[in-house]
Amino acid sequence: QAVVDFERLGEHAAAFQGHDVGFCCLGTTRAKAGADGFVRVDRDYVAQAADLARAGGCKHFILQSSRGANAQSRFLYLRVKGEVENLVQAVGFDHCTILRPAVLLCRRQESRPMEWIAQQFLGAVARLFPTAYSVPVEMVARAMVACALQPGEGKVKVLENGAIHELGKA
């Protein structure tokens, strides 16, 4: 494990050398980082990490994005996610897998009351409609590993929430 300073990511190029597969789940919230900080973390840091990974020999980059990602969205969150998807694809990996999970179900150390309420509601809905609105983070992780072990055909693969559930169960 290498600890890097994302404000000086270029100085840590060695940490990105010699890896066949890159996994990226980097992200923050607008509430925590402000609009500019959110863009810097969720788009700029991710794009720079992808560039460094490719330069270091990475062949397959697996990116956790978001359901609804769209570079033309009027909503900052979805627009930034769409922009970073486009930037990562443009890097030129042999394989690029983009996962677009719905609401992530997880336990956080920090307090996010509205997210907690949404997770409680969506957790209950998930019992009836398991793939519709949410996905446990453990399932996303298993799906990412499955993608790394069997990248499949094609240069770019986008997996929506239902496909993440399927791969995460396998």
TrEMBL record:
One of its GO terms (molecular function) is catalytic activity. CDD domains: CC3_like_SDR_a. GO terms for cellular component: cytoplasm. One of its GO terms (biological process) is import into nucleus. Residues 4-150 form the NAD(P)-binding domain. It comes from the Eukaryota. InterPro entries: NAD(P)-bd_dom, NAD(P)-bd_dom_sf. PANTHER family: OXIDOREDUCTASE HTATIP2 (PTHR14097:SF7). Monomer. Forms homodimers during oxidative stress. Interacts (via N-terminus) with elongation factor EEF1A1 (via middle-region); the interaction is direct and competes with EEF1A1 binding to guanyl-nucleotide exchange factor EEF1B2, thereby inhibiting GDP for GTP exchange and reactivation of EEF1A1. Interacts with nuclear transport receptors XPO4, IPO5/RANBP5, IPO7, IPO9 and KPNB1 as well as GCN1L1/GCN1 and LRPPRC probably through their HEAT repeats. Binds NCOA5/CIA. This is Protein HTATIP2. It comes from Cardinalis cardinalis. The lineage of its organism: Eukaryota, Metazoa, Chordata, Craniata, Vertebrata.
